[in-house]
Recover the amino acids of this structure.
């Protein structure tokens, strides 16, 4: 699977990530890691489900990440720190492949997504205050067109599309699904049909 990760890294390096330009909106900085890993020759992606008691995005699937703290030198520091805090994956064990476009949320955050490769051994130490469930999904499975749909929503008088991915009984939607859609587009570009 190194070939896929190498090709994705090269593709991300050729595409400068688009920063948000939303005049009049003040958004708080945040960052996430989109964790990829290989297990038995099959590339996977990892999602976490947030506990029901959290104030923002409770009980939703997300990528490890959160608000940028003052001591975080960069957004990447935020993504790696949060991944370590949420899943127990040491920063030194993450191979960062690159960045995706910034994504806004209706809760007034701007998310800078980073794509990274984590160990595939499944040795997580989830923080129960931040993670209620870990979902591992074969990356190829998410490319099945029937898993993806969009719905129209309105927020502050503006209509927009919301992405949904349904894998078995699990539904990934909102900003996380928007990030996922962009990643899957790039994966489709760099890797031919029929890969494992």
């Amino acid at each position: 699977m190194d070939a896929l990760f190498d090709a994705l890294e090269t593709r991300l390096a050729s595409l400068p990530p688009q920063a948000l330009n939303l005049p009049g909106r003040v958004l708080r900085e945040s960052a996430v890691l989109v964790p990829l890993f290989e297990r038995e020759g099959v590339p996977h992606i990892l999602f976490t489900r947030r506990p029901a008691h959290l104030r923002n995005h409770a009980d939703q699937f997300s990528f490890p990440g959160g608000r940028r703290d003052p001591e975080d030198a960069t957004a990447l520091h935020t993504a790696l720190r949060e991944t370590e805090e949420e899943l127990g994956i040491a920063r030194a064990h993450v191979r960062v492949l690159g960045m995706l476009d910034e994504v806004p949320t209706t809760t007034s955050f701007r998310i800078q997504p980073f794509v990274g490769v984590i160990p595939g051994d499944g040795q997580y130490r989830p923080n129960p205050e931040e993670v209620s469930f870990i979902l591992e999904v074969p990356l190829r499975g998410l490319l099945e067109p029937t898993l993806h749909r969009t719905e129209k929503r309105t927020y502050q008088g503006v209509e927009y599309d919301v992405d949904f991915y349904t894998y078995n009984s699990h539904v990934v939607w909102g900003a996380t699904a928007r990030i996922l859609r962009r990643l899957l587009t790039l994966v489709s570009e760099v890797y031919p049909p029929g890969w494992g």
Observations:
- The chain is about 20% helix and 35% strand.
